[in-house]
Write a structure and sequence with these properties.
Layout (H helix, E strand, L loop, with lengths): L1 E3 L3 H7 L7 H16 L4 E4 L13 E3 L2 E2 L2 H15 L5 E3 H11 L2 H7 L11 H6 L4
Parallel strand pairs: 1-2
Antiparallel strand pairs: 2-5, 3-4
Amino acid sequence: MITLRPHHLLCTQGYSGKGYSDGFVSHMDEVVHALRTEPGLKIRLSFSTDTLCSACPHKMGEDLCDTQEKVKRFDQKTVDYFGLKEQEYIYQDLIQEIDANMTEEMLADICEGCGWFPVSACKKNICGHKC
């Protein structure tokens, strides 16, 4: 089962083939492909390190990133906006719910300080015509 931290629900939508390292990109390609193409795929939401973190060069340990404060802030804002809990979800159902309720202002608030936000497809893929 794929485990995702809250803000990675957004990253997996905005991902466009760029990443921290070749190994990270390769891993991200595999995970995102599964999330986007396998109907009914269940994920486990975790308020800690997740499947994507496992290949990230910024991971320093379990629930520890070298940008810990920023990552936790992204997660907390995502949880607060969408009332998420640590439990299993069907990825596509959860994404549809998030995207239907996301505004450009919410996305900018959640992703403030993210280096990938300006160079990814987040706005287009999450807000679509609303942004």
